[in-house]
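My current task is to audit a protein record that another person submitted. My question to you is simply how this chain folds and whether the tokens agree. This is what I was given:
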Amino acid sequence: LLTARGELYFSGGTGWPITLTAPGIMGWYAWVPFMECYHGVLSFDHHIEGALTVKGVTHDFTGGRGYIEKDWGQAFPSTWVWQQSNHFDEAHVSLSASIAMIPWLRSTFRGFIVGLWRGGTLYRFATYTGALTEKLEIASNHVHWVLSDRLYRLEMHAQRAQATELRGPTIQDMDRRVPETLTGTIAVQLTARANGAVIFEGLGRNAGMEAVGDLDRLMQ
């Protein structure tokens, strides 16, 4: 039995903005009562203070950076890619990006939500905002994803790392196996569509990444 004891204190976090018409990262889809899975980002980036003791060894997290999101509903999607990092050389930058096959009535569609938070400004790319996927390449060791909307173009090169299996939910129980890593990297470049000017460019370290299911369906 593995036990951990200690106290961690979080401060200074900023979540995905909530409005009446778009209550969080899912936009108006959050109001749909029959979605299979709901998603939320509670904190893009926050300060951590405190320590945890595991197997007699104390690990001090003071000065670290934190990120918090949540999922709820009936089950995870059949297929998805998720990647996140808030460890860039530039402070107060965080990326959260996911794409999945979403059940909808008697069919499915490829839905995605991406947010690049930088110094209090959130650049959003999502199915419900009208953004488009220009390119999505998923291989055993990397994911190359390019998105664009009317104003911006976002390119992400993610390097996948060795993963640990977690348990994920199905409608019946928690027997889904989800390989997840927290040691990947994501190279990010945000440019303006009008003149190609680079707005942000950086490498996200300690990246969380998951790639699950029939990934070919996401690339069609």
In short: The CA atoms of residues 133 and 147 lie 5 Å apart. The longest strand covers residues 37-54. The chain has a mean pLDDT of 95. The two ends are 44 Å apart (CA to CA).
